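Morning!

This is the sequence you dropped in the shared folder:
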Amino acid sequence: MHHRTTSQHFGRLSRRGLLKGGVGALTLTGAAALPGRLLAQDPIKVAGIYTVPVEQQWVSRIHIAAEAAKAAGQIDYSYSENTANTDYPRVMREYAESGVDLIVGEIFGVEQEAREVVLDYPDTAFLLGSSFLDDPAYPNLSVFDNYIQDASYLSGIIAGAMTETGHIGMVGGFPIPEVNRLMHAFMAGVKEIKPDASFQVSFIGSWFDPPKAKETAFAMIENGADLLYAERFGVSDAAKEKGILAIGNVIDTQSEYPDTVVASAIWHFEPTLQAALAAVADGSFAAANYGLYSFMKEGGCSLAPLGTFEGKVPEAALAMVAAKQAAIAAGDFSVEINDEEPMSS
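The structure's back. Tokens below.
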């Protein structure tokens, strides 16, 4: 999700850090861990701070995972949504002052200001979406990101099999690593089936503007796209109205678009949150990069069931998806992580 990108080196650095030693890549770095003041059986006080509505794709996955942990009795959970970047540090301070144990959210648009807050509350654990790597200078801040490129790649294979013309439209929010890597993975999957596929790529400059996303998608359809990559809300509406297909991102919207959304790459935040809660509970929480937990082999992403499109996707494509998924799970195949801005082609 979010505002602001880091250098073009982020993807390479992240991948090296995440894959080095597998789960060992989450070895806590640098400074001492937080005090172990929590008993494992006590609910952990968690606060979520979100810049968009909790219904928005990316944030909804965090919110759903937190609500599940609350229902299981693991946490007490409160949250603030639609928090402006200019307000974000203040809300962080209010929750920290109230005595919450863990604050989750996203700081892509307010990196430096948020990190200053983190340093002022060393006994509070922070798990925040960020384009930057973990940094031992902020010992109580762990970062995460939606590394669901595995599922995005598989959804691209299905898209390649379902497009008739090979012309695909892709509408994103902002051209930042969080979006770029998923688009590149999707395009790579498409090309496994349609090597000569062409792509119209556009960014609407917003995380939540369905009318603008829909308008942009309409223009792509007029320019020949017969399948759309719906990175933002509004794109599937355009596809539905024009009678073409769409591929979803982060959440499964097929129930709302049963004749439109063929497949979706789903993000599961539960592994990320559970790892953080375990660290908070045993007093070991410290600077770490939790991005690994979004990988498919860690249970952090999946390809949504075909549902209404069962039996409508060519068997050859499904066989390729199954083979690639097995290779990913076995560690024999890695989907490239490319954080550079994708271009129309």
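Headline: The chain has two domains: 10-144+268-295, 149-267+306-330.

More detail when I'm at my desk.
O.
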